[in-house]
Write a structure and sequence with these properties.
about 10% strand, 9 helices, Rossmann fold, 5-stranded parallel beta sheet, alpha/beta, about 40% helix, homodimer, 5 strands
């Protein structure tokens, strides 16, 4: 019997690879995206298309009001950093940090997992090329899994505990890309840029674009998406 | 210096008492309510009034889409149970259980706490007269506090850890009421009923009304709110 699993899907490279891995492990994925007032809204359209193309059983979008809380360059009207070196990126938690974002996302995913009677939840967090976000670390995920089993009717009364799967957590971006390619993922569907133009074309110079391009370089593969800057990235 | 604290405020008896306690401890409360598609929407108007009357520094309402997840008599179109005995109430997790609700609420509260630069968060959970909800237990709260300190920029980089205050957790409903009365709380402002009529008048027979009325009886106090059933509750 195929088991259902909830897969958090942003439409980016990591979550798309995670979806492909969940499928390859025999799960029937129910994908979940959030409309949280993000400035890079092209993500949402990509996520829906990816869910369809990769064979999700169902795709859900939940609207939540993170922007009302304020506090991040990803939802507020402050510029996202561009052209940063790796040293600069790893020097601290960046302005694109959204307070408690993964905790909020995982909470909703947990609710959905319980509602559909599943026990498995996939999230594409990554502690290697993680851009400095605290809620992408293994100890954070372990704490949430423990919480999930204390929080819920299914965890308390059920015979099968919740499991949070983080298949990318120890992989470099290049290893993630190689694993996705081996599973047939079309990365042309994905979107990573924090500052796309109105047509959704990636900038090539924000932290997310730079990490992605570096990953493709190290994987010896060509990134199929287009970038605004025809001369390529310039992380001087 | 007065410290800010986020207080989750539903407009019910417990959260209102919690707000009064936070004030009495010298905190400057920022109250947070959720518009989550609850059927008893009178709560939201009461919460705003309570925040004003009890002197909150600020009152925020976040709209979240719990109803889109389904799975609870509090948001879905299934009847709430009425007229249950205490034995029936304590026989398991009721249909009014909302999957992962406190986890979702606490996640947003955590985000707000971080955004306003606070470190303290109050929630009026209660493990005694708790109606069988798993996410009201001390071990659940401890797990969330641990998570909060792993999840956030403030928890990781800050010098002061997050603290989740649960001043009601070990109190009976009667003890909660006595404490609130000693702090001058006007319980006529509060709303507890799961199934109010269109004017917001409480039914007197749902689990929440029955627990409330029992609390007032045991406290030797009169509940100032009106009930639909003029003959009073009939928990037989």
């Amino acid at each position: 019997m195929t088991r259902k699993a909830v897969v958090l899907l942003s439409g980016g490279l990591d979550s798309t690879t995670t979806l492909a891995i969940a499928k390859s492990q025999g799960f029937q994925p129910v994908t979940l995206s959030f409309d949280y007032g993000q400035r890079h809204r092209v993500e949402l359209a990509r996520a829906a298309k990816i869910a369809r193309c990769l064979g999700a059983a169902e795709h859900r979008v939940l609207k939540i009001d993170l922007a009302a809380l304020g506090g991040s360059a990803l939802t507020a009207d402050t510029p996202v950093p561009i052209g940063r070196s790796e040293a600069e990126m790893s020097a601290g938690i960046p302005s694109t940090y959204v307070p408690a974002r993964n905790t909020i996302f995982l909470s909703f995913a947990l609710a959905l997992t319980e509602v559909i009677g599943a026990h498995d939840l996939f999230i594409g967090v990554n502690a290697v090329d993680y851009s400095g976000y605290p809620d992408c670390r293994p100890e954070y995920i372990a704490a949430f899994e423990k919480l999930a089993n204390l929080a819920t009717k299914a965890g308390v009364e059920g015979d099968s505990p919740f499991k949070i799967h983080t298949p990318l957590i120890d992989l470099t971006k290049a290893e993630i890309i190689l694993q996705g390619l081996s599973l047939g993922v079309d990365y042309g569907l994905t979107h990573s840029c924090y500052a796309p133009d109105e047509q959704g074309v990636a900038c090539g110079v924000c932290d997310s674009c730079l990490l992605r391009l570096k990953g493709f370089r190290e994987a010896g593969a060509k990134d199929p998406v287009a970038y605004r800057d025809a001369g390529g990235p310039h992380p001087s």
